[in-house]
Design goal:
Keywords: Oxidoreductase, Peroxidase. One of its GO terms (molecular function) is peroxidase activity. A hairpin with a 5-residue loop joins strand 2 and strand 3. The protein folds into two domains: 41 residues; 97 residues, 2-Layer Sandwich (GMP Synthetase, Chain A, domain 3), CATH 3.30.300. It has 140 residues and is of the alpha+beta class. The chain is globular, with a radius of gyration of 17 Å. 32% of the residues lie in helices and 31% in strands. The termini are far apart. A three-stranded antiparallel beta sheet has the order 1-2-3, with no helix packed on it.
C-alpha cells in the first residue's frame, strides 16, 4: 500500500503553501470577500482540478498506447456546492472535449470510459459523495 504525505504551511493572512510527494508546491488562498488575496487556488476548486488531471492523464496515456494522435483535449468540470455547511460538491459533471481532424471517436470513447470506469481514483473518490456525470464532445 502506498502512503502519500503532504505538508501544508500557513504563510500569512489566508494563504497556505502545500507540497506534493513529488516535490512540487502549490499555493492555496481564498476570495477577497472571505479575507484572502486570491493569489492561490481555492482548495475546493483544486479538487476539481485533481479530478480533471487524474482522468486526463489516464486518457492521454491510454490513447498513446492505442497509437492515437492528432487531437487536443480540454476537460471542463461544472460542480454544484451544497447550500449548508459543510459545503461540498454534490453534483459534478465532466465534459471531455476533443478537437482535431479525423478523430478516432471509437478509440477516444474507449479511453475515456476506461478512465471513468476503471482507472481514475480521484473520480472514484468523488463518487463517494457526489453524483458524477460525464459527456464526450468531438469538434474540428
Amino acid at each position: 500500500m502506498a502512503t502519500h504525505t503532504v505538508t501544508t504551511e500557513w504563510k500569512n493572512n489566508r494563504l497556505f503553501k502545500s507540497d506534493n510527494p513529488n516535490g512540487a508546491t502549490i499555493l492555496m488562498d481564498t476570495s477577497k470577500e472571505l479575507g484572502g488575496n486570491e493569489v492561490g487556488a481555492s482548495p475546493k476548486a483544486l479538487m476539481l482540478s485533481s479530478l480533471a488531471g487524474c482522468s486526463g492523464l489516464d486518457v492521454v496515456m491510454i490513447l498513446e498506447k492505442m497509437k492515437v494522435s492528432g487531437y487536443d483535449l480540454q476537460i471542463k468540470i461544472n460542480a454544484d456546492l451544497t447550500e449548508e455547511h459543510p459545503k461540498y460538491y454534490d453534483k459534478v459533471h465532466v465534459d471531455y472535449m476533443f478537437f482535431g481532424n479525423d478523430l478516432d471517436e471509437e478509440k477516444i470513447t474507449k479511453a475515456v470510459n476506461l478512465s471513468i470506469d476503471k482507472y481514475c481514483g480521484v473520480l472514484e473518490m468523488f463518487r463517494k459523495f457526489a453524483t458524477v456525470t460525464t459527456h464526450i464532445h468531438f469538434s474540428k
